[in-house]
Amino acid sequence: MSDDWIADALAALSASLTPIHPTDTITQAGRKLVRADAIRLLALEDGVRLSDDIEFIHDMRVVTRRMRSVLRLLKPYYHGKQVRHLLKSLRWLARLLGDVRDLDVLLHELHTRDPIGLQHPIIVANLARERAHRDLCDALDSETFHDLADQLTAFALKTKDPLAESAPLPVEVRHVVPVLIHQALSYVRAFDPLLDADTIPGFETLHGLRIAFKQLRYITAYFKDVLGSTADAFITELKAVQDHLGRMNDAVVFAGYLAAYSTENPADGTIADAVVALRAEADMLARTFLPVWQRFNSRAVQRALADALLVLR
Where are the domains of the chain? Predict the structure, then answer.
């Protein structure tokens, strides 16, 4: 894709960038969200290709995930065919970005834990990372990515609103967003019967809860600007839970990678020791999750969300 084409797309998207308002229809709001994230996606392309800073890939992966999340969330309000095509293309890009990002995280863990004892796994992971990054760069040069960028731009800039004459149906942001947030919260709260002081939850359960929290954080952050000021405090609490569960998940995934590597290299005692340490760390994080969960469910944290939503009355 030419730099001129990217510059033109960024200019068109940036010129139409406007904030979300409580009286926007949810379809207008969705296009505004995609518009802002499409700008971020295209602006990150050079860094993903050329920079040694791995945060460019992380940031593009996050933007891709955000767009997939908002499109899945708001899909019922749009004509399905266009959204389905966008989701398919974004899933393709997310997989390529994830292949590189997962190896970046793995390499960070390897270097942090024991760069000498884990030298050979580091070499193997570096080679895999180079291949994954080449595949990603090839993808960014492809017609598939060009088509994705075209689709995102067309979707984001479309002005015809199918819900514009829908009153008295509840289609405005102020009507729909509280329902969407409470629905996402209900998926989080549904884990409550599985979490008590007498039982250490399994990793699969906590992984599912981590995904539910991620969706709740996305939807709250999308519409933070139209919520009350306490939305920031609520999002901070969501991040604290995600950080705890994220560290646990990283330890589980890293232990699995090293365990598989150790199977192929059974004589390497350093690897086996690292696996034991990682599994112990994951167990500790699972055991200490209950207070984190109880804090999230406290009256103070839930009141922060309630107060934030009151602004949309």
Answer: 1-157, 167-313
Using one digit for the tens of pLDDT, what is the confidence trace for 77-135? Answer: 987 788 999 999 999 999 999 999 999 998 998 888 777 778 888 898 999 999 999 99
The answer to whether the Cα torsion of 9, 52, 252, 132 is positive or negative is positive
Give pLDDT tens digits for 168-183: 889 999 999 999 999 9
Residues 6+ apart with CB under 8 A from 247: 285
Q: Select from 1.40.20.10, 3.30.2290.10, 1.10.150.130, 1.20.1250.20 the CATH code of 1-157.
A: 1.40.20.10
Rounded average pLDDT over 57-83: 92
Identify the CATH homologous superfamily for domain 167-313: CHAD domain (1.40.20.10)
Q: Looking at residue 267, what is its pLDDT?
A: 58
Q: Over the chain, what HEC string results? A: CCHHHHHHHHHHHHHCCCCCCCCCEHHHHHHHHHHHHHHHHHHCHHHHHHCCCCHHHHHHHHHHHHHHHHHHHHHHHCCHHHHHHHHHHHHHHHHHHHHHHHHHHHHHHHHHHCCCCCHHHHHHHHHHHHHHHHHHHHHHCCHHHHHHHHHHHHHHHCCCCCCCCCCCCCCEHHHHHHHHHHHHHHHHHCCHHHCECCECCCHHHHHHHHHHHHHHHHHHHHCHHHCCCCHHHHHHHHHHHHHHHHHHHHHHHHHHHHHHHHHHCCCCHHHHHHHHHHHHHHHHHHHCHHHHHHHHCCHHHHHHHHHHHHCCC
pTM metric for this prediction? 0.89
